[in-house]
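Q: I'm writing up a methods section and want to include an example of the input and output format. Could you take the sequence below and give the corresponding predicted structure tokens, formatted cleanly so I can copy it straight into the document?
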Amino acid sequence: MAETKKVKLSERTADRLCEMIVDEHRYQPGSKLPNENELSEALRVSRTTLREAISFLVAQGILEIRRGKGTFVAEDLTTSGLDLSGLAGLRARGRAKDLFEMRLIFEPATVALACQRASDEELRQIAKRASRVEAVAAEGGDWPLADQEFHWAIIKASHNEYMRRLYPIINSAVNEIMQLTQNRFHMQNTAIQDNRLILEFLLKRDEAGARHAMSIHMKHLINILQD
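A: Here is the clean output for your methods example:
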């Protein structure tokens, strides 16, 4: 129970920080966030919770960490494309199936684009993210966050700006659903197995295979959510 409360607090903190960036325009694209002590005090959370929230927003592409410099709002963030109020309503209604059906529409196409456009280094980074999902899951850590980073790496490798901007909106709601599902362990094992297949086709730059593997993955998740 304690872990569930901790996760929810970090999500609320991430949502609040995103509101400060997107709705209130306190921090502009490219600007640096206050230091950890100042920001945790402003948000009234511990530094540990703040770090988790920041990691979540980094995975979404809203924030980026520059070594030795600090945490910055992404340069290419389009604030008009993010509507957190609508997203909160989506979560409240529990439309999980609708959400994953949306992913079923655009993520297979995205991974096919990644097969075409990803650099060799981007493919290596995707492979590293896939391995990290398995390592984090084995340690009992926050595998959904690691899985988001895997999918985000694929989105970036597609080199499609609209997909890059759509993903954070969808991913915020996905994270909430992943934390609340009763079939979390089943979902974890499914994600790991499906990620291996997606990666296999990606590394071969097999567009049809990667598209099909991603479609299967989304259908698996929809089925689990309906159990």
